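Hi all, posting the design record for the shared folder.

TITLE: backbone redesign
STEP: 1 of 1
STRUCTURE INPUT:
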């Protein structure tokens, strides 16, 4: 893929959806390409995040503990929230087949955000919206739990 095509693929990720093309192109150009064989771990739950991985080819199994909770396909970004905050990865992702991913490390992300402040603001706004949406969902669930006498009432 070309840098422009990679940048447009990054724009499909919700936190990058409203970002200008230039910082996404810089990030796509500077990201290190990594290949993973089937069964190799891309990110590991509980490990400190230093990078996010943008899947370019292949699929990955996404697990919480030992339980598979989903599949990541080309166009997915794994570990972005943990990478930005320096937190621990919340899930494990294991290559289900050969995977090529662009590794976006924290230093690269911060450098692009510093060089292109509007990019940083767009990402922060998208994260703020995501957090607000999650809080509203938790409030709805809390309300359901308060009203329920037992789990069978849910």
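Okay, here is what came back for every position:
SEQUENCE:
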């Amino acid at each position: 893929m070309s840098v422009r095509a990679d940048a447009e693929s990054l724009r499909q990720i919700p936190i990058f959806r409203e970002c200008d093309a230039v910082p996404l192109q810089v990030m796509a150009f500077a990201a290190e390409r990594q290949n993973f064989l089937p069964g190799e771990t891309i990110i590991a739950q509980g490990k400190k995040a230093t990078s996010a991985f943008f899947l370019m080819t292949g699929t990955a199994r996404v697990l919480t503990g030992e339980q598979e909770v989903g599949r990541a396909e080309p166009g997915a970004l794994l570990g972005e929230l943990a990478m930005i905050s320096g937190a621990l990865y919340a899930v494990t992702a294991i290559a289900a087949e050969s995977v090529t991913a662009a590794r976006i490390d924290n230093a690269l992300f911060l450098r692009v955000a510093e060089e292109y402040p509007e990019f940083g603001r767009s990402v922060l706004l998208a994260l703020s919206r995501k957090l607000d949406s999650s809080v509203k969902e938790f409030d709805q669930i809390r309300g359901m739990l308060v009203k329920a006498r037992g789990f069978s009432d849910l």
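COMMENT: The longest strand covers residues 51-57.
Let me know if anyone wants the other runs.
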